[in-house]
Prior knowledge:
CATH topology: BirA Bifunctional Protein, domain 2
Distance between the termini: 21 Å
Number of strands: 11
Order of helices and strands: EHEEHEEEHHEEEEHHHHEHH
Helix content: 25-40%
Radius of gyration: 18 Å
CATH class: Alpha Beta
Amino acid sequence: MTAPDIDWRVIREEQRPGPLQMALDETAAATAGSGGPATVRTYRWDPSCLSLGYGQNPDTVDWEACDRAGVDVTRRQTGGGGIYHDAVGDVAYSIAVPADAVPGTLLDAYHQLCEPILDAFDRLGIDADYVEEAVPELYHPACYLRELHPAHDVVAAGRKIAGNAQYRTRDAVVQHGSLAYSVNAAAHLDVFADPPVDAEGFSERVIGIDEVADADRSTAVSALETSLSAWVRSGVADGGGSVDTDGSWTDAELDRARELAAEKYRDDDWVRSRRGGGDRE
């Protein structure tokens, strides 16, 4: 962290519906940007959820298939393609910090905030890093099937294992992402309308932690939480401030997040309308 005297909280994995998880990210950004604590957290999508990228065309979604499977659909503040977040196979995190705590350029900030993610893979004994060279796109609407780029795509054994994205408000930066624990290729593809890739093709592009490490899901979550906590403590030691490694939301934050989830992240005008303006990263 480049700004001193930041107070931090680490919120351990919570199970909540996707629209509420996205609302909590926005709420955490507001808290961090207004002088409250910065937040790092792990979370679980419950039920499974498709999160659309900020500018994604809703016509790329198979809405009936999502309804049949009981899959929630929401829209992220971040750009990129849609991601199916399996309630078991996905391990999610987010980091919300004041804007002046990270580099001003998106890529530099991205690499700084990805440090604990790469460390988590290392703790699991997984050789994961940014892809060495570009890999062509297979299907643009799906995040995991887009072009793999050396600047920001994390792979293991040559296949994508994590998706990460970032957005900024005037006063804060939010980075959130998903680590693939176990990949259900058919479920990933079923949420999209007529993807030109089959389950075998998806599995050739995406890999789960359970394929490259002898670790159950709770071990993977623990590794991520440990890495996030160590990263925060290191920043506090360098710059001052405090860290609550067993943090929680305030009642006011939870109330605001529930309002945002109902008014925005579950609202058809937000979810089912193309937001326009192209992709955010």
